[in-house]
Amino acid sequence: MKKLQGRHFAFAGLFILVTLIMLLGIQFRTEISPDTQQMFDYIDGLPDSSAIIISFDHEASSLPEMRPLGLAILRHAF
Q1: Minimal CA–CA distance to 47: which of 9, 5, 10, 77?
Q2: Per-residue pLDDT tens over the stretch 16-33
Q3: What is the pTM of this model?
Q4: Which residues of 12-49 are buried (b: 16+ CB within 10 A; e: fewer)?
Q5: Longest dimension (CA), the chain
Q6: Does an H or E element contain 11, and which?
Q7: Treating both helix axes as pointing N-terminal to C-terminal, what angle do 63-77 and 34-45 enclose, rounded to 10 degrees?
Q8: CB–CB of 77/54 below 8 Å?
Q9: How many CA atoms within 13 Å lie on the side-chain side of 69?
């Protein structure tokens, strides 16, 4: 049998923590930054026939951070 390593305990602890948060229904307060609200209001204020150009310049290492941001902006724009 393999010896348990420290990472096994870390993942087990993380699993227990996430499970407890989901079962107890704990919700965290999320605050919207002024820049985010300004961009949302700008896109909402455009006329229906407007065309917009959205450019995402990123490297592969930043894809996990940039992809959700890009999807949210594109969904809102459409």
Answers
A1: 77
A2: 999 999 999 988 899 999
A3: 0.59
A4: eeeeeeeeeeeeeeeeeeeeeeeeeeeeeeeeeeeeee
A5: 65
A6: helix 6-24
A7: 40
A8: yes
A9: 12
